[in-house]
Each structure stands twice: as structure tokens, then as C-alpha cells.
Design brief:
This protein has helices spanning about 5-35, 55-60, 75-85, 160-170, 210-225, and strands at about 45, 90-95, 100-110, 110-115, 120-125, 130-135, 145, 180-185, 190-195, 200-205, 230-235, 240-245, 275. The protein is an alpha/beta fold. The protein folds into two domains: about 40-110, Ubiquitin-like (UB roll); about 110-275, Rossmann fold (3-Layer(aba) Sandwich). The strands form two sheets. It has a ten-stranded mixed beta sheet, covered by helices on one side. The chain has a three-stranded mixed beta sheet with strand order 1-3-2, with helices on one face. The protein is elongated and about 115 Å long.
């Protein structure tokens, strides 16, 4: 004769059956939510863009209308935007479930310089990306960059040397670039900075930020000693060296191609001097 269930066993069996039923309907509900239009991308918003079209940013992110919100990988989408669009410095993705909205916020890179060569003028972004060709550099608040670029093309990266200069310029306050007329990339890890007051400064690209900050105090020191415009060498560690143009071999005297100087300004002495 079968053993009859006790009241306690009967309650446990009913509770187990209820859990099975509840789990089943919860699973059905979850599937319904996942497949529901409410759980899919219905709106895509883009903010922070001033020059890049919204459609281009959305395409770079890989996010598509109708895609399940569960499948939106925010970190991967943000990384894709930065990787595919050189003009974007950083990006962030957020998802709003109630409205089905994916928001893409971008921070575009800034123009930091204008590259000048025989073919014209080109705006350079903070990573060395050539943004666009312009008719003239007159009146622009950016320094002129020159060098030996032979294949500069719009919407492509400049050379490694020019790109390094651009990355350094991105951290230089605009106030410290006042008086800088041209930055010539020498191709050996240094630049020659031509100033409106006719001084020339030799600096390391790797420490361009620090060199620019040291330019005006150093020039004031040498002018206070009575020195006329010449070349100030800021490469390496202090003391910085001053050399009058008259001491430079005529074959090595540098002239500024973009600023239109026809030749070096003669100094007052044939000796070098050091900034302490």
C-alpha cells in the first residue's frame, strides 16, 4: 500500500511546482522582452560633433537601428569611433532602455597648426591629421609649420615628425605661441622656431612644450645683456646657448620660408653666450 504524503511533503511539492511554473513564465517573459521592439535600438543621438557628419559617426560605431539593446557593446563601439575617425579624440556611448536610445558623445580634435609648402596651406589636427586645404593662413591663430613633407594629403596623417610636433602643440597654451611665426621641422628630432622679433630657437620635439615656455624668459635674459637677435639653442638641459647670426657659417644659416625673411639678421658679436 503506497505511503501517503504528509502535509509537509505535500506543501513542499506544491511550492516546487509553483517555482517551476513561475520560472517558465519568467523565461517566456524574458524572451518576449528580448524580442520586443521596446528592447531594440529605436533612436541614435550624436553630440559633440561640429565638423564630422552624424551619419559618419554612427557608421563608425557599428550601432544599427533595430539592433538588440543587449547586443550594444558600449566600450567596443566607442573604441571603433576613435579608431576609424582620426578627427575624434575620444568617444563615449550610453544606452537608455526606456526610450531605446543609444547616445554617442564625441570630442573632436582641435586644429593646432597650419602646414605650409609649395602646394598651399593645410590645417593640422592635434594628432597630425591633415584636416583640409585652405586658401591662406593669414589671420589664423595657429603657428605655421614647415618641413620636408613631399606627399601631404588631405584626410590623411602627416609624417611621424610633423605629427609629433602637432601632439606637442596640443598641450601648449595659445598665449605662449604669441610671437611664433613659423616652426620648421628639421627631421632630426629638432625644430627651428622663428619668432617675430627675429630670434630663432632650436628645440627638441620631445620637449617642445617646455621649450616654448622657456623662450620668452630666455630671450629677455639675452636682450638684457645687450644681445641682438641670433640663434638660441634650447636643446638639452640649461645653460642655453646663444649664437649671433654672424657666427654661423653662411652655408648653414637658416632662413624662414614662410615668414619671408631674406637672410639672417647680423649679430653684434662672433662669440657664443650661455643662459645660466
Amino acid at each position: 500500500m503506497p505511503r501517503q504524503e504528509t502535509a509537509e511533503e505535500r506543501e513542499r511539492r506544491k511550492a516546487r511546482n509553483r517555482r517551476i511554473v513561475v520560472s517558465f513564465f519568467a523565461f517566456i517573459g524574458l524572451v518576449a522582452v528580448l524580442e520586443s521592439p521596446l528592447a531594440r535600438v529605436r533612436h541614435i543621438e550624436v553630440s559633440g560633433n561640429t565638423t564630422i557628419p552624424m551619419e559618419q559617426i554612427v557608421a563608425a560605431s557599428g550601432v544599427a537601428y533595430g539592433e538588440s539593446l543587449w547586443e550594444v557593446n558600449r566600450k567596443r563601439a566607442a573604441s571603433a569611433v576613435v579608431a576609424k575617425l582620426p578627427m575624434v579624440d575620444r568617444a563615449a556611448i550610453s544606452v537608455s532602455w526606456p526610450s531605446g536610445t543609444v547616445s554617442i558623445e564625441v570630442h573632436e580634435r582641435d586644429v593646432v597648426a597650419v602646414y605650409a609648402d609649395q602646394n598651399g596651406f593645410y590645417e593640422l589636427m592635434s594628432n597630425g591629421y591633415v584636416y583640409q586645404k585652405i586658401a591662406s593662413a593669414a589671420g589664423l591663430p595657429y603657428p605655421i609649420v614647415t618641413g620636408q613633407e613631399s606627399d601631404l594629403s588631405v584626410h590623411r596623417m602627416a609624417s611621424a615628425a610633423v605629427s609629433s610636433v602637432c601632439r606637442q602643440l596640443a598641450s601648449v597654451p595659445a598665449s605662449e605661441l604669441t610671437g611664433v611665426s613659423e616652426i620648421h621641422v628639421n627631421g632630426d628630432g629638432t625644430v627651428t622656431i622663428y619668432l617675430d622679433n627675429d630670434f630663432e630657437v632650436l628645440a627638441d620635439v620631445a620637449d617642445l612644450r617646455g621649450s616654448v615656455a622657456a623662450i620668452q624668459p630666455t630671450i629677455r635674459y639675452f636682450e638684457g645683456k645687450g644681445y641682438r637677435p641670433g640663434v638660441i639653442d634650447l636643446t638639452g638641459s640649461p645653460p642655453y646657448r646663444y649664437t649671433p647670426f654672424s657666427s654661423l657659417p653662411s652655408s648653414n644659416a637658416k632662413t624662414s620660408s614662410a615668414s619671408g625673411r631674406g637672410g639672417p639678421v647680423q649679430g653684434t658679436s662672433s662669440k657664443t653666450a650661455s643662459h645660466p
